[in-house]
Design goal:
Two copies of one chain form a homodimer. The first copy, chain A, is α/β, with parallel strands linked by helices. Chain A contains ten helices and 17 strands. Chain A starts with 7 loop residues before the first helix and ends with a strand. Chain A is about 25% helix and about 25% strand. Chain A is elongated. In chain A, helix 3 packs parallel to helix 4. Chain A folds into two domains: about 130 residues, Cytidine Deaminase, domain 2, CATH 3.40.140.10; about 190 residues, Dihydrofolate Reductase, subunit A, CATH 3.40.430. In chain A, the strands form three sheets. Chain A has an eight-stranded mixed sheet with strand order 10-9-8-11-6-12-17-16, sandwiched between helices. Chain A has a five-stranded mixed sheet with strand order 2-1-3-4-5. Chain A has a two-stranded antiparallel ribbon with strand order 7-14. Chains A, B: In the N-terminal section; belongs to the cytidine and deoxycytidylate deaminase family. In the C-terminal section; belongs to the HTP reductase family. Chains A, B: Keywords: Hydrolase, Metal-binding, Multifunctional enzyme, NADP, Oxidoreductase, Riboflavin biosynthesis, Zinc. Chains A, B: Converts 2,5-diamino-6-(ribosylamino)-4(3h)-pyrimidinone 5'-phosphate into 5-amino-6-(ribosylamino)-2,4(1h,3h)-pyrimidinedione 5'-phosphate.
């Protein structure tokens, strides 16, 4: 147990609850026996007010009839040192007799910090953090081509004091989102649509502009393969000053929709933060995407790319200001993964 | 031995001589002993007038002290049945006592066709073709995400009666090749440059426009890591009616340069075909790229992609005509591979 790979199961546990834990982080924890070879318990953050991942994993081990004495814990976030609605996780690990803890990221939350020190003071062999916090020095090269970790949006939100923002784009390789006559259904692969719905269900909120609602009247729910909406839905946010029809599909159940009458990106994000929103997916048109890029607020990009040329039409990003007049102004992102969706390509980038 | 994987070593042998065999195809051949487990000989096409891959592989086996009786041959192209400057390969395989032949593509060359039938008539167990010819029905789905095979340019050239054309593009994910002030050195990674030079050395010719020569004055030689030009250089072709300075670097040794005073894509390609050119790489600016796409002549795309946004500047493709006014006019390509070059991405597509 000495590299990033060991966090993959804990990260998958965290991902499984992403979208249901805010304002808490979707953490995953795996407990091993004293040899470090056999898994004895697994846990992920419960919805706010419920137990944290470490406590869930300890309970799981005991429920399995396992002893946690001399066990090892692998967890995606530094165990908290904070008594909030639940007791501190670091103390729970000490009480359970755990002797080694590996954690992926430090906890940047000022009220929860100090968990690793507390564990060390109690003689526990603590290893971590394995990665620097996002938006710290050297972050880019550290993260290049690594998979996305489920606690990242929460980390960014905590560090930047605003929700984590992922921009979703879909375009041709020459950068067009629709042809001149506005025909645009070019990502036809069933696989791509399924990935979008899977993505939505793990977000706290989705943002679109009033223009998209008026033009396409989308439902924007997260639906399974058979079209059935998932029990848990992200908040659907419409941003912009124009009114939209009250019978727009975006207001349909299940889930809630919210019209924030502002076209100011920072204002909208501040409003969402006050509602406990940590992780948002922006599924806007080219102007909304441009507004976020212009504001310098894009923590991640999900680019669904058709290996095709249109040569003319509507561009994937529209921006009033001549944002990047020289190469020094380029907004460069870090590639995290490339995957294939039928005949299309999904490129995941982060700040 | 029953799938595409078995061709990978033969294909690599063919690739190693690509750029030196035209007008003949860069074929690779691997000979196995009768068990099909042990390699006894390897061969690739010699320069025009020299031996074909099968004959080279048989010679290699005999040179290694191996017997070719009851041996098996794996070859990337159907063995020819044609007595040209060399005898027919199918007869050479029969004479060597080979009992099984697996070939990847049929030979579409009317004068060479019939090799597989000739082998079968002599009782040889023949398997192939494993892939359809490019530009035939069902080709796209057959080739999706397969690696590029070294005989493909020759196959396309033979079927389409013009050189195979690869367009090289380098741009941001919003489709820009340079910022508004024309600063454009955004692909800075050493890895990307190395791949471009490796690519050039395996082509018969490189095409640029007069505008690129006047603006950038490039050398366009294929150079190794230390900057030394490779012994074998592609023909450097400048297309366009404007004159260029006689002391332009593109005329510098080593290798040859040729100015074809035409901006007509088909005319230029016909001229090159008459000179025995099979495989060209178009390294033009956005207008030249647009001219090839507008003419519908683009067999492959090498897209070097920076995970970055410029939001404004010079587009990667410029085209006078409103080529794709509706989605039905989209020029869609088949993804063949995605690779990473430092922090950039190389997307290889084919027709």
């Amino acid at each position: 147990m000495a590299d990033l790979l060991m966090f993959s199961e804990a990260n998958a546990l965290g991902h499984s609850v992403a979208g249901s834990t805010s304002p808490n982080p979707p953490v995953g924890c795996v407990l091993y026996d004293s040899t470090g070879q056999r898994v004895i318990g697994r846990g992920a953050t419960e919805p706010a007010g419920g137990a944290h991942a470490e406590v869930v994993a300890i309970r799981d081990a005991l429920h399995n009839g396992e002893s946690t004495v001399d066990a090892r814990a692998v967890v995606t976030l530094e165990p908290c040192n904070h008594t909030g609605r639940t007791g501190p996780c670091s103390q729970a690990l000490i009480d359970a007799g755990i002797t080694r803890v590996d954690f992926l990221f430090s906890d940047p939350n000022p009220v929860a910090v100090g968990g690793a020190d507390h564990l060390r003071e109690h003689g526990i062999d603590v290893h971590g953090p394995y990665l620097p916090l996002p938006y710290c020095d050297e972050t880019r090269s550290s993260f290049q081509w690594l998979p996305q970790f489920s606690v990242e949006p929460w980390l960014v939100s905590t560090v930047m004091k605003r929700p984590h923002v992922t921009l979703k784009l879909a375009s041709t390789i020459d950068g067009f989102v629709a042809a001149s006559d506005n025909t645009s259904k070019w990502i036809t692969s069933e696989q791509a649509r399924r990935v979008v719905h899977e993505d939505r269900r793990h977000r706290d909120a989705i943002i679109v502009g009033t223009g998209t609602v008026k033009a396409d009247n989308p439902r924007l729910t997260a639906r399974g393969e058979d079209g059935t909406p998932y029990p848990q839905q992200p908040l659907r946010v419409i941003m912009g000053q124009r009114s939209i029809p009250e019978d727009s599909h975006i207001y349909d159940a299940p889930g809630r929709a919210l019209h924030i009458r502002s076209h100011d990106v920072k204002e909208v994000l501040a409003d969402l933060r006050s509602r406990g929103i940590v992780d948002v997916l922006v599924e806007g048109g080219p102007r909304l995407t441009g507004a976020f890029l212009k504001a310098g607020i894009a923590d991640a990009i999900q680019l669904y790319q058709a290996p095709a040329f249109l040569l003319a039409g509507y561009r994937n990003v529209e921006c009033d200001a001549n944002l990047a007049s020289t190469l020094d102004d380029i907004q460069r992102f870090t590639p995290r993964s490339v995957s294939t969706l039928g005949s299309d390509i999904l490129l995941s980038l982060s700040h």
